[in-house]
Amino acid sequence: MVAGNWKMYTTSGEGAVLVQDIAEELERELDDDAIDVVVCPPFTGIKAVSTVIELDHLNMGLGAQDMFWEAEGAFTGAVSARMLTELRCTHVIVGHSERREFFGETDETVNKKVRAVFAAGMTPIMCCGETLATRDALETDSFIRAQVMAGAAGLSAEEAARLVIAYEPIWAIGSGRTPTPESANDVTRAIRATIGAMYGPPAAMQVRVLYGGSVKPENASMFFSEPDIDGALVGGAALKADSFSAIAKAACGK
Ligand code: PGA
User: What pLDDT is attached to residue 164?
Assistant: First the structure.
């Protein structure tokens, strides 16, 4: 899976153009069953992007960047699962580090959202990742395992198998710095093992674990060649059709 997180960039008009440009570059790859391409515009762009996907019959997933867990109610500013499924959203990013840092997201709210996304028939892309201080203290492994256990608690084994987890070291996001592919793979392997301990070997085999953090066309295939990395969650490089498409093409070669 290669998923583009557009963050708070693109108006709805710009998003519609971007998805068309991506589709043009990925004409062949979108129909390749070996890879799922997902774009995650801001809420206001979802409808326009969804319309392009539908009218052009694009084999592309559509994700939101967040969602509230309640079905409806007096929750000013929040967006529900039904509002997203009506617009044919297939995925929801949950617990991105920017939401944890700037919007008070915790492992507990992440877990509520993951379960609500599944209950609505969509696929959560659950993010986890350590700070530089945690890494320097050599606590990455235990920190990530705890984050995954809390975020993925209370699922069925079938849901766990369908889960997508994005490992995004916070210090690598938007910084141009990346872990070595081997050290990223150590963490994604630990994530897979955690899901295995919680939900059994089939879930561990099927859960998709992405790497995210300064993924670019130049480094994508290095990450994709690692055995426990099943794709990428891409931020900055997802905002240009050529760089996002180059990353998706690199994933096709995995
Ligand atoms: P980046 O962002 O690719 O710009 O580092 C990744 C992300 O935050 O999902």
Answer: 98
